[in-house]
Automatic annotation (TrEMBL), chain A:
Source organism of the structure: Rhodoblastus acidophilus (Rhodopseudomonas acidophila)
Keyword tags: 2Fe-2S, Iron, Iron-sulfur, Metal-binding, Oxidoreductase
Domain of life (superkingdom): Bacteria
Gene3D superfamilies noted in UniProt: 3.10.20.30, [2Fe-2S]-binding domain
Gene Ontology MF: a single term: metal ion binding
The protein's name in its UniProt record: Xanthine dehydrogenase YagT iron-sulfur-binding subunit
Residues that span the membrane, as ranges: none
InterPro entries in the cross-refs: 2Fe-2S-bd, 2Fe-2S-bd_dom_sf, 2Fe-2S_ferredoxin-like_sf, 2Fe-2S_ferredoxin-type, 2Fe2S_fd_BS, Aldehyde_Oxdr_Iron-Sulfur, Beta-grasp_dom_sf
Domain 2Fe-2S ferredoxin-type: residue ranges: 23-99
S-adenosyl-L-methionine is among the record's keywords: no
Iron found in the keyword field: yes
SUPFAM superfamilies on file: 2Fe-2S ferredoxin-like (SSF54292), CO dehydrogenase ISP C-domain like (SSF47741)
TrEMBL record, chain B:
Gene Ontology MF terms in the entry: FAD binding; oxidoreductase activity
UniProt xrefs under PANTHER family: OXIDOREDUCTASE, XANTHINE DEHYDROGENASE SUBUNIT C-RELATED
Keyword RNA-binding part of the UniProt annotation: no
Domain of life: Bacteria
Gene3D superfamilies assigned to the protein according to its UniProt record, in alphabetical order: 3.30.465.10, CO dehydrogenase flavoprotein, C-terminal domain, Uridine Diphospho-n-acetylenolpyruvylglucosamine Reductase, domain 2
Keywords assigned by UniProt, alphabetized: FAD, Flavoprotein
Protein name, as recorded: Xanthine dehydrogenase YagS FAD-binding subunit
Native species: Rhodoblastus acidophilus (Rhodopseudomonas acidophila)
């Protein structure tokens, strides 16, 4: 963990008009260490998309209700819209861009294409990162359990049956 | 979202002294509720004090039985902790009934206790809300109140507490340990949250400069006869319309002790000691459970759109107690209700 540089700002009369200094934040994103200077209110999602140009992670609802922004932090799936980047200082982040290895798709990416597990594709990076986090949790799952465990990822096109089939395929491979 | 500044607490004592020194500052841990409320401008803290790295994330056995749960353990980790699975499965099931896999990885135990209501008017800055701005009025009382309280509500507020975890903790007689600038204290979980009365802006009896450090479970876990039954508009990833944490200690088919906590019906997890006391020594059967359900709901009051919740709550109590008595707790993945 890197040492966070903070500036103690005295209480302003109108805090909304007194922007504090930006903070140095180091994130290890898909294996690459990145140091950014960010306002404290920058979410991890916005840091990835707007500051690191990793636009694979999608902003859907921006309120933790849709799962499109799901990434892995230290291997655990979270909603990147509901955490500030500064809180993740020093953390290892994996996004959809970091799942393929040496030009070979991650088994989940391959399974999603094999099973046509999407239509418009907007929720897909979040679905795949969420499923990767689920697989890492290491429990064998029935179809019912997969559906329950993936309920934090909404697909407005309704590709759920194929998403479940893709995850079942990937569970067999990994 | 307003601009704010950010500091990281180095210890529990440091966290408490920092919040005491900066009125309006807020602690942040998982962030799953607070960040959302900040985006909506419902919460406008000028400073966040990050407590997420404090070493308050252990689950430890207490000598003589019982379990001490660090306030910063993630909901998912607590649900999967062996002592919870083995001795307090009611708590594990309630945790799994809440939110989503991603949110359970982020949300802390302390943050779950501090969760604010999901009343749509509380979130909507364009409408009056006494919880947001005391004295403004309540838009839900004569508004879209299908999901609102049927017990313990006031003229000022009909909001409900949204937590599943807290319903199980209420049934288990959990104790909340907090630390203030000069000393610590312990509150029963059932005294931690408040009824709205005429001060609905206060959700809990926690003081602004106090930090939740741990939740303690007494030795009795009701691991044989329990059920957490949550009824909602969709089968997963939705807040409860009604939920019931039921726990029984049986002597043959007689009830030695019963615990019933309701979620989704009031400003706090709802328990009624008189109802539980009256079940002592009674047979664990449909007549006893039905009478308990009627007694629990005797003071229930409906608003324009939520009368269904009174019957729903009574039936959910009976079903959860029946599942508990049979030793067949509600599955949190197969949602068919047995």
């Amino acid at each position: 963990m890197t040492q966070l540089q903070t500036t103690e700002v005295p209480a302003a009369k109108n805090p909304s008009l007194a922007p504090p200094d930006k903070l140095a934040v180091t994130l290890i994103v898909n294996g690459v260490e990145q140091t950014l200077r960010l306002a404290p209110w920058t979410t991890l999602l916005d840091a990835l998309r707007d500051h690191l140009n990793l636009t694979g992670t999608k902003k859907g609802c921006d309120h933790g209700q849709c799962g499109a922004c799901t990434v892995l932090v230290e291997g655990r799936r979270i909603n990147s819209c509901l955490t500030f980047a500064v809180m993740q200082d020093g953390a290892r982040i994996t996004t959809i861009e970091g799942l393929a290895r040496n030009g070979v798709l991650h088994p989940l990416q391959q399974a999603f294409t094999d099973h046509d597990a999407f239509q418009c594709g907007y929720c897909t990076p979040g679905q795949i990162c969420s499923a990767a986090g689920l697989l890492a949790e290491g429990k064998p799952l029935t179809r019912d359990e997969i559906r329950e465990a993936m309920s934090g990822n909404i697909c407005r096109c309704g590709a759920y049956p194929n998403i479940v089939a893709a995850i079942e395929q990937a569970m067999g491979r990994t | 979202m307003i601009n704010f500044d950010y500091v990281r607490a180095t210890s529990a004592a440091d966290a408490v002294s920092r919040i005491a020194a900066f009125p309006g500052a807020k602690f942040i841990a998982g962030g799953t509720n607070l960040v959302d409320l900040m985006k909506e401008d419902v919460e406008r803290p000028p400073r966040l004090i990050d407590i997420s790295r404090l070493p308050l994330n252990r689950v430890e056995d207490i000598q003589g039985g019982g379990l001490r749960i660090g306030a910063l353990i993630a909901n998912a980790d607590l649900a999967g902790a062996p002592p919870v699975a083995q001795r307090y499965p009611l708590l594990g099931d309630a945790l799994r009934a809440g939110a989503s896999g991603q949110l359970r990885n982020m949300a802390s135990v302390g943050g779950n206790l501090m969760q604010r209501t999901r009343c749509c008017y509380f979130y909507d800055l364009a409408t009056p809300c006494n919880k947001r701005r005391p004295g403004d009025g309540c838009s839900a009382r004569d508004g879209l109140n299908r999901a609102h309280a049927i017990l313990g509500a006031s003229v000022a507020c009909v909001a409900t507490h949204p937590s599943d975890m807290c319903v199980a903790l209420a049934a288990l007689d959990a104790i909340v340990h907090v630390r203030g600038p000069t000393e610590g204290r312990a509150l029963a979980l059932t005294d931690f949250h408040r009824l709205p009365g005429d001060t609905p802006d206060r959700d809990t009896n926690l003081e602004p400069d106090e930090l939740i450090t741990a939740v303690e479970l007494p030795p009795k876990g009701f691991a044989e006869h329990y059920s957490y039954l949550k009824i909602r508009d969709r089968l997963s990833y939705a807040f409860a319309l009604v939920s019931v944490a039921a726990a029984l200690d049986l002597d043959g088919d007689r009830i030695r002790e019963a615990r019933i906590a309701l979620g989704g019906v009031a400003h706090k997890p709802w328990r009624d000691a008189r109802v539980e006391d009256a079940m002592r020594g009674e047979p664990a059967n449909a007549a006893t459970f039905g009478a308990a359900a009627q007694a629990l709901l005797r003071d229930a009051r409906a608003l324009a759109h939520n009368a269904f919740k009174i019957d729903l709550a009574a039936r959910t109590v009976v079903r959860a107690l029946t599942q508990a008595a049979r030793g067949t707790p509600q599955s949190q993945t197969d949602k068919r209700i047995g």
